[in-house]
Prior knowledge:
By secondary structure, the protein is α+β, with helices and mostly antiparallel strands. The chain has one domain. Helix content is 23%, strand content 50%. It is built from one helix and three strands, in the order αβββ. A three-stranded antiparallel sheet has the order 1-2-3. A hairpin with a 2-residue loop joins strand 2 and strand 3. The mean pLDDT is 91.
Amino acid sequence: MLTDDRQYDTVFAIGGFLDIIEVGNTKYVLYAIDRFFVEVKWDVEKGE
């Protein structure tokens, strides 16, 4: 299993951006690697 840092690096380096969905102060950034889908959750207020 990959570390969290390695997972982020992999998604952002080779993942294909799909969409951003905003719900309140939260953004969900969607990526795909082959047929595997990744959701990155971003809290706008906290900046994380």
